[in-house]
Specification:
- Helices cover about 35% and strands about 25% of the residues.
- By secondary structure, the chain is α/β, with parallel strands linked by helices.
- The longest helix has 26 residues.
- It is globular.
- The N and C termini lie far apart (about 65 Å).
C-alpha cells in the first residue's frame, strides 16, 4: 500500500512540474530583433534590396510573422529602413552611431536593444540578409530550445563537406582532414558552418556579452536556406532561385 501511495505521489509531482514548466514557458517573453544598419559598404542599402519582389528586410519580417512571433523590432540608424519597417507593421529602435558602425560587433547592437527591453527572456536575432530563412524552422528551433533539455541558445548551421587548407609562409597544410587518408564525401559526416540566419538566445547570455556559450544546440538548414547576401552576385543568384521556390 505504501509503495502504491509513493508511486502515486511521485506521479503527481511529475505532472505538477510539467505543468509549471509549461506555465513558465507560456509567460516567457520572446522577441525578434533584426539589426539593419544603413551603412553597408559592399551593397548600398543592402537591407532594402529586392529578392523575389520583396526587400530583404520585408522577407525577414515575413519569416518572423509566419513563425507566429509578434514582438518584432528593427534596430536601425537609417530613416529609409525605419520607414520600411513601419510599412511592414513592426517596431523601430533607434540604433546609436557607435553600434551601427562597420567595426561594431553584433553583440553591441543586441545589448543596446536589450538595455531598453529588460522584459525579454528569449531573443530571436534574425538576419535580414538571409532571404530564405524558413518560418517553420524558426518555430521548431524555439521548441528545441527547451527540448530534450533547456539550452541557452540555438543557431542555424549548414553542413559542409569541403576540404579546408591553410598556409603559414610557404607551407600549406590541411585543417579538417588527413591528406594521407583523403576522405570521400560518403566517408564522413562533414562540418557544421554557421549561416548567420538566426540565433535564438536567452537574455542572461547576452547580458554576459555573448551570443553563444557551451550550452548551445544547432538547427541544420539546407544549402539554399544558408544563402547570405553580401554582394551583387548574391542578389542576382537569390533572385533567380526565388523564381523556382
Amino acid at each position: 500500500m505504501k509503495v502504491v501511495l509513493f508511486k502515486f505521489l511521485n506521479m503527481r509531482v511529475v505532472f505538477l512540474l510539467c505543468f509549471l514548466s509549461l506555465f513558465i514557458s507560456a509567460f516567457a517573453s520572446t522577441a525578434v530583433l533584426i539589426l539593419a544598419r544603413g551603412g553597408s559598404k559592399g551593397v548600398h542599402l543592402k537591407n532594402l534590396r529586392d529578392v523575389g519582389g520583396k526587400t530583404l528586410l520585408s522577407r525577414a519580417i515575413f519569416a518572423a510573422k509566419h513563425a507566429h512571433l509578434k514582438d518584432i523590432t528593427i534596430s536601425t540608424d537609417n530613416p529609409l529602413i525605419a520607414l520600411e519597417a513601419l510599412k511592414n507593421g513592426v517596431s523601430v529602435f533607434k540604433r546609436s552611431y557607435v553600434t551601427a558602425t562597420d567595426w561594431a560587433p553584433s553583440i553591441w547592437g543586441v545589448q543596446e536593444f536589450l538595455s531598453q527591453r529588460p522584459d525579454i527572456d528569449v531573443l530571436v536575432l534574425l538576419q535580414a540578409t538571409s532571404p530564405f530563412t524558413s518560418p517553420e524552422h524558426l518555430k521548431l528551433s524555439l521548441t528545441k530550445l527547451d527540448q530534450p533539455k533547456p539550452y541557452d541558445c540555438i543557431f542555424s548551421v549548414t553542413r559542409s563537406f569541403k576540404l579546408r587548407w591553410n598556409s603559414s609562409g610557404s607551407i600549406v597544410y590541411p585543417i579538417n582532414f588527413n591528406y594521407k587518408l583523403r576522405p570521400r564525401r560518403q566517408d564522413w559526416s562533414g562540418e557544421y558552418i554557421e549561416t548567420g540566419g538566426f540565433y535564438i538566445i536567452r537574455s542572461h547570455i547576452i547580458q554576459q556579452g555573448f551570443l553563444q556559450n557551451d550550452n548551445c544546440t544547432l538547427w541544420e538548414v539546407s544549402q539554399l536556406e544558408s544563402i547570405e547576401i553580401d554582394s551583387e552576385l548574391d542578389i542576382y543568384i537569390a533572385n533567380i532561385l526565388s523564381l523556382v521556390l
